[in-house]
Amino acid sequence: MDTLRKKSLHFRLAHTYARFEVPANWDMNEGKWVETPTDFCSYARAVIAGIVIALCITLIGGIFASITIGDFIAWVSILITRGYFVEPEPGALITMIVSIIGTALYLFHKFMINIYKPWKEARRDRLAQEPIVIKEPTFLGTWYKSIKEKACFSIKFTE
Length: 159
Fold this sequence. Notes:
Number of strands: 5
Shape: elongated
Structural class: mainly alpha
Distance between the termini: 16 Å
Helix content: 55-70%
Strand order of the largest sheet: 1-5-4
Radius of gyration: 23 Å
Strand content: 5-15%
Order of helices and strands: EHEEEHHHE
Number of helices: 4
């Protein structure tokens, strides 16, 4: 049985976008939920679905941003070249302002709080310890092994 980390990009993609949940059973002796192993094939499908959904969201957001931000840049360039104020279309201006503020808040939240801070703390802790020796297989290594052996084997997740 191979182990994969929960603090990895592929687990975040599968959990956030494809709603992958690690199966767990209630242990009466310990009085808590104990995670049970899952098969690698269902996890790989969840990771691929997460990648596709994230790419679709990025594509739709990019199209929306290019339409609204393009109008905003054109309006600013007209202001600069003419030297006097030109009224923008009200709907386009409101859409541009909302999309710029929303994008800035979303990027700040996702990057600074959810990704950058834990990564920086984990990296600092790893660098403070002795050199890193990779003992656990990576996601791509496990995927290649499952394709080569044509088998869906059990995996377990670690913190």
